[in-house]
Each structure stands twice: as structure tokens, then as C-alpha cells.
Amino acid sequence: MFLLIWAALSGVGYGIGAFIFDEAQTELRHFVEDGKPIWGKVIAKDPENHATIRYTYVVDGTSYSGQGGSGRGNPRFDDIKVGDNVVVYYDPTDPAKSFMGYPQYKLQASYSVVVFLAIAFPILPMIVILAIFFAIRAARKTEANEN
């Protein structure tokens, strides 16, 4: 019975994670499948704004700009300097859309979060269910001993 409840709650956790990350995963999958890699150039670093890095890149002679985070195939924030080249993926159907780093790294991380939610989501409800079960059982034992 508990396994059935655990499985149901895992399904709910997975569903919540998939719903929350669906749009981001769809966009990331698009960059993984159709995006084109290009070198971008770091134009600014903003440590006060979630360690954001601003960059530019050129597609067919047109300059575009974007912002993103470090890692995912690029150096750590502290190791990147203004003027450095960074890996950028852009959307060939809309070159103004870009992603800094290798999108497959972030996509894999988002899948990991969904799996974690599927595993972890049932824990608190199961603790509550078990606590209620044992409380009822203890109350019944006490009631039986009093009679």
C-alpha cells in the first residue's frame, strides 16, 4: 500500500517538475538540436545581478548581444574577463536569440532536477502519512488496553 502511495506521489512530483521546466526544456532542446555554435565576446560582468555576463556575437555581419551565466563549457565567472571569447549558441531562424555555453549541459541539469523532484516529493507526505498511521495505531492500542 505504501509503495503504491509512494509511486503516485512520485508521479505527482515528476509532473510538477516537468510542468515547471517544460518551457525552459523546450527552448534548450531547440538550441541543442538546431542551435549554431559561435564565439561571443564578453562585454561586461555584473556580479550584483546573479553573476550575469553580457556578450556580443556576430552572425552574417550583424552584431547581436545577450546575457547569461558562466560555466556550461565556459570558464567560471571569476575567471572570465571582459574581452574574453565565450561559447554561444544562437537560433539560426532568429539570430537575436542566444544561449551562453553548451545548452546540453543546462538541459541535462534541468532533467536532473525533475528526477530529484520525482524522488524527493513523496518524502514529506509519506512522513505525515506514517505519523498519522502510527498515531492511530498507538491510540487503538491504548484504547484496547483500557478495556
Walk me through what this model shows.
By secondary structure, the protein is α+β, with helices and mostly antiparallel strands. The chain has one domain (2-146): OB fold (Dihydrolipoamide Acetyltransferase, E2P) (Beta Barrel), CATH 2.40.50. The chain is 51% helix and 27% strand. The chain has three helices and five strands; from the N terminus they run H-E-E-E-E-E-H-H. A five-stranded antiparallel beta sheet has the order 3-2-1-4-5, with helices on one face. A hairpin with a 2-residue loop joins strand 4 and strand 5 (94-100). Helix 1 packs antiparallel against helix 2 (103-120). The two termini are 30 Å apart. The model has no long low-confidence stretch (mean pLDDT 84).
Considering the chains and any ligands shown, give keywords for the structure.
147 residues; alpha+beta; 5-stranded antiparallel sheet; 5 strands; elongated
Layout of strands and helices, then pairs:
Elements: H1 2-34, E1 36-46, E2 52-59, E3 62-68, E4 85-91, E5 94-100, H2 103-120, H3 123-146
Antiparallel strand pairs: 1-2, 1-4, 2-3, 4-5
Helix pairs in contact: 1-2
Overall shape: it is elongated
Main sheet strand line-up: 3-2-1-4-5
CATH topology group = OB fold (Dihydrolipoamide Acetyltransferase, E2P)
The separation of the N and C termini measures: 30 Å
Q: How many strand units?
A: 5
- The number of helical segments is 3
The major sheet is characterized as: 5 strands, antiparallel
Radius of gyration: 24 Å
Number of domains as seen in the coordinates: 1
* Overall mean confidence score, pLDDT: 84
Provide the low-confidence segments as ranges. Answer: none
